């Protein structure tokens, strides 16, 4: 199995990409770099069995309706005292609220934070990956799945905060390799130690493996409609060690 992880940013120079080749008892990072272009991402995803992208794959349905209503001048203001909850529905997707409830982490708002710039880019990438005009699933059941490296690291008992500060990615790499002795970073270990973008791409590829093997959260039937349009963050549900089991 081949899994790909993409730590997507609006600009190529901050976008990390990693490829992991899986075999019984072993996982090898066969490629990792920072500065991934659209063409390189599309090529890697197409060659993979599953790709995890660290970026929202859609916007809150309420926000999409709000923008359409605003363009027509038909926005209905919130009821007295309901402004905070009204704005929250515009800012956060259903999957964001699920992650918040289950992990305590608050994903960035795709409609109110700078992550929206990367989401513009991923929308184009999803179109490039759908050459026959059939939209890729945003619910995680297709070739692409939305992942959240910090939440994956939290679930695996590893440092999930602060490692993006200068010099701290190396400590997380050491912890990751201790927890997963079957994982080989090979020639890409120095890059992962100095670049959290490359490291996040590796974690995204690990999370993609969890999703590909049925060991990650999936939307319930009641959540599926929202996940199909807004996206779904797949959180690994297994220990890190289980990823390498055949």
Automatic annotation (TrEMBL):
Domain of life: Bacteria
InterPro entries for the chain: DUF429
The protein's name in its UniProt record: Predicted nuclease (RNAse H fold)
Highest classification ranks of the organism: Bacteria, Bacillati, Actinomycetota, Actinomycetes, Micromonosporales
């Amino acid at each position: 199995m081949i899994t790909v992880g993409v730590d997507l940013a609006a600009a190529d120079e901050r976008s990390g990409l990693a490829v992991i080749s899986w075999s019984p008892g072993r996982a090898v990072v066969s490629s990792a770099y920072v500065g991934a272009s659209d063409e390189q991402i599309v090529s890697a995803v197409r060659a993979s069995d599953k790709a995890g992208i660290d970026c929202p794959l859609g916007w809150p349905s309420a926000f999409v309706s709000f923008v359409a209503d605003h363009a027509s001048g038909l926005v209905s203001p919130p009821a007295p005292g309901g402004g905070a909850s009204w704005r929250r529905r515009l800012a956060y997707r259903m999957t964001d609220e699920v992650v918040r409830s289950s992990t305590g982490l608050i994903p960035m708002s795709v409609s109110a934070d700078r992550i929206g710039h990367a989401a513009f880019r991923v929308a184009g990438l999803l179109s490039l990956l759908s050459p026959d005009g059939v939209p890729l699933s945003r619910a995680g059941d297709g070739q692409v799945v939305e992942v959240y490296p910090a939440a994956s690291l939290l679930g695996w008992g590893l440092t999930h905060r602060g490692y993006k500060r200068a010099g701290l990615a190396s400590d997380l790499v050491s912890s990751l390799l201790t927890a997963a002795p079957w994982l080989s970073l090979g020639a890409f270990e120095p890059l992962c130690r100095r670049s959290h973008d490359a490291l996040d791409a590796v974690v995204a590829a690990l999370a993609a493996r969890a999703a590909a093997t049925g060991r990650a959260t999936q939307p319930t039937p009641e959540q599926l409609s929202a996940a199909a349009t807004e996206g779904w963050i797949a959180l690994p549900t297994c220990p890190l060690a289980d990823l390498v089991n055949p």
